[in-house]
Design brief:
The structure is a single chain. The protein is α+β, with helices and mostly antiparallel strands. It has helices spanning about 140-150, 170-185, 210-225, 240-260, 270-280, 330-345, 420-435, 440; strands spanning about 5-10, 20-25, 30-35, 40-45, 50, 55-60, 70, 75-80, 95, 230-235, 290, 295-300, 305, 310, 315, 320, 355-360, 380-385, 390-395, 405-415. Strands 10, 13, 16, 17, 18, 19 and 20 form a seven-stranded mixed sheet that branches. The structure holds oxidized coenzyme A.
Length: about 450
């Protein structure tokens, strides 16, 4: 013969004997429990309290619901004691305001019906990495619940390592740590772009990207999303440089015809390299690297210049080493050789490493300006577009009808705005322009 259901009343809460709110009913009617299991959790203005089971048994009927207001002697639930116990019908709530949460004493865990959570393994080394419970009650003490509420954590997402998967403070701490780490790792993830079925609009052909295209796509994307790019545009008036270039090329052609030696033809590129070296010498900021955490600038005292080369298989950037030590012809020869090697697929990784600054020249094709993407760990890159010609008033002329042709080389400097400010960028780009506008200095052979 079974005992009559017993009442579980809210016992005295001592000095906190005032109205409180039911915030959790961990067990549903019919669920067996062991002595000490938490049956009701209430919260007053001052504290969160849990009402433990006075004995082994099962809930017959809940007499309150979450949100109910209760006070001392309120009927919380009816339960059926599983043995003719000596237990008193009420029990003492456990205060956990300042104490660490601990699992309730449970000497003989009841058999788990399907609706109760499966017990956690005795030793769970990484509870935060386990899947959180998907159904069933959450076992946790007031301290854990309070912290979870303060942090806005849904305890159903947290795996507990205590008795009956009870969530301990340590479990919550581990969950927070793991979630923060996951969040940090996931932070760079971007919302995916939409991908419609393109074949619905007409015939399509799928062409896999080359390895080089895939690698450069990944790097360009990483640079674009990690580095705040700003692009500074300017124009260098290079009439004098073009005149000098034409003279040198003509002289070389003549001497080559005589001596049968092959010298690389000068394009604007070697002049640009020299002008960049001059500006980089004056502005060390632009030959710096910024550590990935953004806290330290690494100044580099080398003048290795990367040259973007377009190849059939994708974009490659070989490095001209020690450009400050080379004359125009050596730079032109090396650029031509590296570009050829790039197009033949014969560059080694070492030949593409170590640059402190990059030049991307599209000027032979056209364009008036573009936004080149920085090649980290570099902090700036110079884009070069097509020389433009325009009429300008002749220098020192008083006549309104006296004009000359100006040749303007459009330059686009992308820079890392975390490290470089607009004023630095204008000064640096101006310095490149001024160097190009005084070609005699560029033609000086550094090797003597
Ligand atoms: N304006 C007008 N003409 C230019 C010019 C400019 N800015 N730059 C070069 N030219 C001329 C050259 O003088 C040459 O003509 P001449 O023989 O009559 O003098 C002609 O264009 C071809 O030059 P080039 O391309 O052979 O040589 P280069 O030194 O200018 O450039 C290289 C070499 C390897 C940089 C270039 O061939 C190249 O591949 N550029 C592509 C870079 C690239 O893809 N950047 C994009 C990166 S972002 O996607």
């Amino acid at each position: 013969m079974t005992d009559q259901p017993r009442n579980l009343l809210l016992p005295s809460m001592g000095e906190d004997d005032m109205q409180a709110e039911v915030i959790e009913l961990p067990l549903a009617p019919g669920t067996p429990f062991a002595k000490g299991d938490v049956l009701v959790i209430i919260e007053s203005d001052k504290a969160t309290l849990e009402v433990p089971a006075p004995d082994d048994g099962s809930i017959v009927a809940l007499k309150v619901q979450v949100g109910s207001t209760v006070q001392k002697d309120s009927l919380l639930l009816e339960y059926q004691a599983s043995t003719a116990s000596q237990a008193t019908p009420t029990s003492t709530p456990q205060r956990n305001d300042s104490q660490p949460d601990s699992a309730p004493a449970s000497t003989s865990p009841p058999a788990s019906p399907a609706s109760t959570p499966a017990p956690a393994p005795a030793a769970a080394p990484h509870p935060a990495s386990q899947p959180a419970r998907t159904s069933g009650p959450v076992y946790a003490g007031p301290a854990v619940r309070r912290l979870a509420r303060q942090l806005g954590i849904d305890l159903t997402q947290v795996s507990g390592t205590g008795n009956r998967s009870r969530i301990q403070l340590e479990d919550l701490h581990l969950w927070v740590r793991t979630t923060l780490q996951k969040g940090a790792a996931a932070a760079p993830a971007l919302p995916a772009t939409e991908w419609p079925d393109l074949s619905q609009y007409g015939a399509i052909k799928e062409i896999p990207l080359s390895r080089i295209q895939k690698v450069s796509a990944r790097r360009l994307h990483a640079s674009w999303v990690n580095i705040p790019h700003v692009c500074q545009h300017d124009q260098a008036e290079i009439s004098a440089m073009e005149q000098l270039r034409a003279q040198i090329n003509k002289a070389n052609q003549a001497s080559q015809a005589k001596q049968h030696e092959q010298k690389a033809r000068l394009t604007p590129l070697p002049f640009l390299i020299k002008a960049c070296v001059a500006a980089l010498t004056e502005f060390p900021l632009f030959r710096s690297a910024l550590t990935p955490d953004g806290t330290t600038r690494i100044e580099r005292d080398s003048y290795h210049i990367g040259i973007a080369v377009d190849t059939e298989k994708g974009l490659l950037v070989p490095t001209i080493r020690d450009a400050d030590q080379r004359n125009l012809h050596e730079l032109a020869t090396e650029a031509a050789q590296l570009a050829q090697q790039a197009r033949d697929g014969k560059l080694s990784p070492a030949q593409m490493a170590g640059a402190v600054f990059t030049i991307s020249s599209l000027g032979h094709l056209g364009g008036t300006g573009f936004t080149p993407i920085i090649n980290p760990p570099q902090v700036a890159i110079l884009g070069v577009s097509k020389i433009q010609e325009r009429l300008a008033p002749a220098k020192n002329s008083t006549s309104e009808t006296s004009f000359r042709v100006e040749r303007l080389l459009p330059l686009s400097l992308s820079y890392d705005h975390r490290l470089i400010n607009g004023v630095d960028a204008v000064r640096f780009t101006r310095a490149i322009c001024q160097a190009l506008e005084q070609p005699e200095t560029l033609a000086i052979d550094p090797t003597g």
